[in-house]
């Protein structure tokens, strides 16, 4: 699991028109952001107040906004001094607070490409993982054409690329050779893996003693976005001949694949397996492996599932679970 949001909070005094301080606890300012603080960094800022005031923000990079809750993206590494001001109905300043936001560099600017294969022969491309200290996404190119959504691949080799321009105006790109081949998925297998996983949670499976009997946990709900990330991993292992949480094709990990699929959860974990022939066999193997078991019995609410078969490969059958919490 990896926490993505790091909430912070502060209090500040508000003065009346007569110069008298009001109780500080009535006004709270806080923010949340990625825990790694890496650029580009999107920050959500909020003020809790009893009402009747206008909240004005100065982000420290020249941009401003108003509202009880706002979102802002910092593209360049630096330390920014965020100022929040409360104005009464007459537009008079009645309170102010400041807080530093430190944005760390993610390394040299570069275009990156995240590839999400699906068992039906389609692929999704994402620029996620790119390091660009300027607004604007990278262009995504597949076989010489721009793509913005799922694209169907014919069997064989294909060329994909992410093209971007750095903050200094220099072009940068990442290019990959994709492989497309027939794959077989099984929704009944995926459904049975979900049933067996939730059965273990309900029975309070103990990962140390490897038997049921502990406190039961609520069931995980299947999630279509997590299914995309899970299938990308199973299909990736089947197509590119690796068995690892890190893709041998694009270097992506579980978190990046989930984000590329369209979700930004607070925590993510992934179970993979290869070679097992049935859902019962694969869930039994995960439950008897301490790390995999802790994921199944973890503090998650959603799961994505994918079984993929590709005859003629080392393991033939590939399985993935992706767990997440909002």
TrEMBL record:
SMART domains: PKD
Domain PKD: 50-91
Signal peptide: 1-21
UniProt cross-references to InterPro entries, sorted A to Z: CAP_dom, CAP_sf, Ig-like_fold, PKD/Chitinase_dom, PKD_dom, PKD_dom_sf
Pfam family of the protein (one): PKD_4
Keyword Signal: yes
Record keywords: Signal
Protein name according to UniProt: PKD domain-containing protein
């Amino acid at each position: 699991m990896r926490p993505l949001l790091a909430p912070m909070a502060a209090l500040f005094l508000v003065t009346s028109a007569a110069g008298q301080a009001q109780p500080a606890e009535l006004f709270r300012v806080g923010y949340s952001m990625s825990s790694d603080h890496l650029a580009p960094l999107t920050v959500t800022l909020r003020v809790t107040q009893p009402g009747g005031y206008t909240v004005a923000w100065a982000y420290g990079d020249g941009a401003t906004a108003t509202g009880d809750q706002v979102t802002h993206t910092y593209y360049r590494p630096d330390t920014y001094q965020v100022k929040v001001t409360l104005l009464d109905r007459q537009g008079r300043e009645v309170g102010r607070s400041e807080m530093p936001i430190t944005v760390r560099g993610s390394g040299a600017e570069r275009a990156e490409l995240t590839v999400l294969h699906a068992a039906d022969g389609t692929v999704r491309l994402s620029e996620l993982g790119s390091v660009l200290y300027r607004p604007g996404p990278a262009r995504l190119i597949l076989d010489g054409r721009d793509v913005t959504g799922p694209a169907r691949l014919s069997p064989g080799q294909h060329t994909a690329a992410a093209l971007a321009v750095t903050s200094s105006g220099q072009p940068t790109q990442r290019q990959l050779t994709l492989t497309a081949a027939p794959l077989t998925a099984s929704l009944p297998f995926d459904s049975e893996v979900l049933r067996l996983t939730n059965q273990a949670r309900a029975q309070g499976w103990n990962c140390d003693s490897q038997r049921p009997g502990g406190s039961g946990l609520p069931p995980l709900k299947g999630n279509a976005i997590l299914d995309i990330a899970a299938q990308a991993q199973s299909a990736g292992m089947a197509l590119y001949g690796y068995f690892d949480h890190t893709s041998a094709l694009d270097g992506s990990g579980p978190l990046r694949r989930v984000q590329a699929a369209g979700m930004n959860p607070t925590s993510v974990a992934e179970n993979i397996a290869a070679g097992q022939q049935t859902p019962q066999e694969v869930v039994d193997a995960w439950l008897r492996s301490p790390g995999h078991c802790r994921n199944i019995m973890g503090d998650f609410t959603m799961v994505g599932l994918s079984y993929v078969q590709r005859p003629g490969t080392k393991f033939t059958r590939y399985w993935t679970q992706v767990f997440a919490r909002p």
